[in-house]
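Lab notebook, bench 4. The sequencing result for the construct came back, and we need a structural model before the next group meeting so we can plan mutations. Quick request posted to the team channel:

Model the 3D structure of this chain.
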Amino acid sequence: MNPMGWPSELVQVVEHSVTAELSTLTKAGGPITTPVTPYPGPAGDTIDVSTGVTYPAKAERARRNPRVALLFADPLGYPGAPVVLVQGLASVRDADLQANTDRYVALSAAKLPETVKGRPKLLLRRMGWYYARIWIQVTPLHVRWWHGSDLSEPARQWDAPADTAAVLSDPPPTGTQPPPWKAPVEWRGLAAHALDRLPLHDLTVVDSNGFPVCLPVAETRLVAEGIEVRLGTGAPELRPGPACFTAHGHPARFSGQENHSLVGRLEARDNGSLLLRVERALGDWSATGGPLRMGIGFLSKGRVLGPRLRREAARRNQPVPKVRFP
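Done. Here's the predicted structure in token form:
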């Protein structure tokens, strides 16, 4: 089903990729990029991703400014796939948390079976703080793709018809958005760890039309001022200004992940590279290690995020959704 006439490369990566990088914009106009799991929209005209009700920041950014991007560049999830960059408009869906949760439970178990394999359903049903979801539906406007992760060749491009529009987001919840749930950390040690241990690196800036542009990085190096990067020769020219560097990794059979994002300002260097002058590291969502370590990690997350679920459901005038497995 492809009613919008998307290029076949996009249809395939949405179907098969287990991760994509979602880029949203802050109030100040800076990009923030984090990994998510993509799913085809029910009508085939959107790419749908989600975030937890208990950590809704990316959804609130997308609701406030619907210009977003999705980067598909994860060979661990889909070997041999092209790199695909989607720029589009986001529609945030949180008017029916129970339906959202039911959909996420079903889709995530089907696409990421290792995340529930061997885990008692009784325990999973108590993880409402994780499974309760907000959906972000992305309507693609511009798609670029490269055959080869090094971006050594020029991109091909597809543009949606000029009258393409996205439906409005659901109204924002009442009250105050919850604060970040993780304390900030010193960025330099985190950057050294991420560059050494995590295989997927990407850089996000904002283009002249106000959309995020997220691209995989060919080379990275930690320097005194921040992170020096180089892109492939087929990459578009990136504008200096607010930027985000994201490092990400997960097992080939997706059972958990580790990701870190650092924000700052991008500038060109005399040697032809780009420099991200890092200002700070952002809180991350990571679940790593074996079943025991991951179980302990989820328990610690639940102690922090569990109390938020009731408050966030109340902000939307809805009951707390139940986690219902078939």
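The domain at 8-161+176-315 is CATH 2.30.110.10 (Pnp Oxidase; Chain A).
Will bring this to the meeting.
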